[in-house]
């Protein structure tokens, strides 16, 4: 099936909203969707739910001969499967989304394989003869944007969770793989936790560029460019992909990466915690329960999200009119208790990590004043922007066509 | 059910699965006053359900209408329904419009009222058109007539490029059109807005303040999860 065409109305509406500091699902610009990591019954089976995007990763292993160039190292291969189950426009065998699969696979390989986060030497059984080959199969169950982040998280969590069977090496070189009952399986050794963070770059006008983290599918269709950073909390950048038609200066990219590092810390902790929790519960139970009680349905997720938004009064139209025609300098008529938080988010990307766990009330903070001169009759934000670059900086540091001449 | 008659009462009966036989006192005799609607099939004098959903019975003075109200996202064109389409391609004088169904729908640019070859209404790819479907048939593409206001005038122009269009499941669109659901009126008390609902699950929304646009959009999307009564209490008490 072809993807439903995007109308001009949707495109302009979303860019206008972003220009005014709003996202269609009322998140902050640098706020990610709810993440849930759950594990299945088998070792190495992990499902990550990022908002409505769902990804399932499964790690399997096999004893093979090693590569001639690397005789004492194991092998790791990653395969991504995008099917019509994920989205109607994808074709079985990856026809419709061919470019997407390739891009996704490239990012994952760079992040996980080439970063050498997994200690492949520990997968060696007998040098030059037999090693373990780990294969990670990632299936996208639902595509609602930001597949890179979700797949990366799932693959890493699955690899950390995975336990390979124990082996018995005979004198003459025969390798016997022992069952889980005979000998407890051996965990993999992962030095660093690679994390992928995606930013959508939306350009409502030519010289203005706003950054959204964790884009949904709609936002991905409307964005002009994307920045996908693969990194780990130790400070290494494992991959950096910058597709699209946006030009950014070095300082802006550095700002994004600074933010990405903070986010990476949070995700890495989340992944490690989830793995440890699951391994602990597994030790106490006779039979692991797997995904049975842990997966959250779409309806449940939406219900939780909407209830939360209504509780923070973001989804109701205030009864007192906030639409008095006021000049730009006027204070907004947003509830006063938001203002302390307002100030802390004023310095984009130079602030403390608490902002990343920012409450959804920050969406209201994008202060709202009406400019009577505005032709579109939309409320423009004041200085407080939820994106990574302040307006003043943008004018100075963005490459314009004049710079290129 | 594309048109609700005046004074109609809708009663929800049971949840049915495809293949369930429907048994109801009204169905046994007086077949003249019974109308079997979408989701149901008459076979060998008995009525069977062909869809999963809630079986509903709506009754006016003399007529009983049975139908299955199911939740789905994929639109199947029905004659008489109003839909919002997106212009995707231009073939000569014809424009191909996508309405979310399996086939395209074609209109020419002379179809608008009061326009002739000299002062043609220019349509662009990506424009939104609101109109009514006629003569749907499994084997042919449906006929589509752009409208301005339902049943009143033939379309003057495509929908304005302001505002936002979003997708909802079909049962939400039907709930919005239902005259007994007062969610839109509750929102309308607080702010002015224009909403155009297509039976194909596409909704166009416009309001002066972009904050309100996002709020109303989310409120309408909440209908997917919450029932209209729940939503009304939640929105009016805050």
UniProtKB/TrEMBL annotation, chain A:
UniProt keywords, alphabetically: Cytoplasm, Nucleus, RNA-binding
Residue ranges crossing the lipid bilayer per the database entry: none
Residue stretches of biased makeup (Polar residues): 396-405
Main location group: cytoplasm
InterPro entries assigned: ExoRNase_PH_dom1, ExoRNase_PH_dom2, ExoRNase_PH_dom2_sf, Exosome_comp_Rrp42_subfam, PNPase/RNase_PH_dom_sf, Ribosomal_Su5_D2-typ_SF, Rrp45
Region ranges (Disordered): 320-405
Subcellular location: Cytoplasm; Nucleus
Gene Ontology MF annotations: mRNA 3'-UTR AU-rich region binding
Domain of life (superkingdom): Eukaryota
Example of a GO cellular component annotation carried by this entry: nuclear exosome (RNase complex)
One of the GO biological process terms: nuclear mRNA surveillance
PANTHER family reported in the protein's UniProt record: EXOSOME COMPLEX COMPONENT RRP45, EXOSOME COMPLEX EXONUCLEASE RIBOSOMAL RNA PROCESSING PROTEIN
UniProt family annotation: Belongs to the RNase PH family.
Protein name in the entry: Exosome complex component RRP45
TrEMBL record, chain B:
Gene Ontology CC terms: cytoplasmic exosome (RNase complex); nuclear exosome (RNase complex)
Compartments, record wording: Nucleus
Family annotation (InterPro entries): Exosome_RNA_bind1/RRP40/RRP4 (IPR026699), KH_dom_type_1 (IPR004088), KH_dom_type_1_sf (IPR036612), NA-bd_OB-fold (IPR012340)
Subcellular location, principal: nucleus
A Pfam family: RRP40_S1
SUPFAM superfamilies, A to Z: Eukaryotic type KH-domain (KH-domain type I), Nucleic acid-binding proteins, Ribosomal L27 protein-like
Entry's Gene Ontology molecular function annotations: RNA binding
One of the GO BP terms on file: CUT catabolic process
PANTHER family: EXOSOME COMPLEX COMPONENT RRP40, PNAS-3 RELATED
Organism name: Petrolisthes manimaculis
Protein name per UniProt: K Homology domain-containing protein
Lineage: Eukaryota, Metazoa, Ecdysozoa, Arthropoda, Crustacea
Domain K Homology: 163-209
Key words of the record: Exosome, RNA-binding
N-terminal signal peptide: none
